[in-house]
Amino acid sequence: MNLRVPSIRHDDCDELSALCKAGGDPLRLNVLRALANDSFGVLELTHIFATGQSGMSHHLKVLSQAQLVATRREGNAIFYRRALPHTELLGGKLHAALLEEVDNLTLPADVQARISAVHGQRAAASQDFFSRIAEKFRAQQDLIAGVPQYRDSVLTLLDKQSFSPAATALEVGPGDGSFLPDLAQRFQHVTALDNSSVMLELARQLCERESLNNVSLLLADALHDAHLQADCVVVNMVLHHFAAPADALRQLATLLKPGGSLLVTELCSHNQAWAREACGDLWLGFEQDDLAHWATAAGLVPGESLYVGLRNGFQIQVRHFQRPAGDTHHR
Ligand SMILES: C[S@@+](CC[C@H](N)C(=O)[O-])C[C@H]1O[C@@H](n2cnc3c(N)ncnc32)[C@H](O)[C@@H]1O
C-alpha cells in the first residue's frame, strides 16, 4: 500500500488570528504605542510598564509571533521595535490600521514618565562619556570610523545639492571640528552646536588654527535648546548617541529651513558591543530602512544614499533627506 504523508497546508487563518490575538490585549497595545518611535529591551519595558519580566517576555513573544514587533540584537541585549506593515501581504492592511489606531492612544502619565527616565539615563551616559574623553577623542573615534573615512562621501552628496551663495549650515555634534573647514568653505555661515563644552573647546581650537572666520560655536543640546534654522544640517556619527533616535530625527527636521537638506552619516547596524564601552555608543548602528522610516515620519523626503565599507568590517551609511520646499508651516 502506498501511504502518502499528507503535506501540511499553511492556513492563512492562523496568521490572521495570531494578529487579532496579539492586538487583543491592553498591555500589548500600550507596548506597541510605546514602541512607536523607539526601541526598548525587555528589562526597560518591564520597568516602563511596572510589570514582571516573565509576563512581559510572554507579551513580546505573542507580538513577535504575529510579526507586530521585530527584534534586534545589541551586543548581549535584545531590543524590540515595531515591525513595519507590508500592506501587500496577508494581514498587512489590518496591521497598518491597528498601528494607526494605536498611535491615537495616549500612554498613561506614569508610563510616559518612566519612558522619559529611560531616555534620561541613556542621555546622561552619553554626555558623561564625551566629558571624559576629550584628550583621546580622535583615537577613540578612529577605532570605528573617523571623518577621513566618510568625508568624501558626505561632500559628494553635499555638492550635489544646489545651495545658494547665502546658504547657511549647522553641524550638530561637530566633535573636534574636523568637518568644519569643509562646511566653512561651502557656506556663508556655519554654526557648530554641541552639548559638551569640552568637545566645543576642541572645535574652537581647530577653527582658530584654520582661521575659520564664518563659524560660530554654540553650546546647546540639539534636542532641547536649539532654536535656529539652516539650509543644511549635518549630523555625522551623532545619532547613535541619542537616547531616542526617531524623536531626535523629528527634532533635527525642525532645524531645517523649507527646502533644506539633512545629511546624516551613521554606522549601519552592527554587533560590536564593545563600541558601547569604548566609544560611548548607545545604539549599535541603524538599519537603513529605520532611518528612512523615521525621517519620513518627521516630514522629510529620503534622497540619495552612499555606503562606505571599512576595512575593520564596519559599514557607514551617508544619507540625504530633504524638507519639502513647500513645507512652510512652523514646526
Ligand atoms: C561621536 S562624536 C562625533 C563627532 C564628529 N561629528 C565626528 O564625526 O568625528 C558625537 C558628538 O555629538 C555630541 N553630542 C551628543 N549628544 C548631543 C546632543 N544632544 N546635542 C548636541 N551634541 C551632542 C558629542 O558631544 C560629540 O561631540
From TrEMBL:
Entry superkingdom: Bacteria
Gene3D superfamilies associated with the record: Vaccinia Virus protein VP39, Winged helix-like DNA-binding domain superfamily/Winged helix DNA-binding domain
GO molecular function (one): DNA-binding transcription factor activity
CDD domains membership: AdoMet_MTases, HTH_ARSR
A Pfam family annotated for this UniProt entry: HTH_5
Residues annotated as domain HTH arsR-type: 8-102
Family annotation (InterPro entries): ArsR-like_HTH, HTH_ArsR_DNA-bd_dom, Methyltransf_11, SAM-dependent_MTases_sf, WH-like_DNA-bd_sf, WH_DNA-bd_sf
PANTHER family assigned to the protein according to its UniProt record, in alphabetical order: TRANS-ACONITATE 2-METHYLTRANSFERASE-RELATED (PTHR43861)
NCBIfam families assigned: HTH_metalloreg (NF033788)
Annotated protein name in UniProt: Metalloregulator ArsR/SmtB family transcription factor
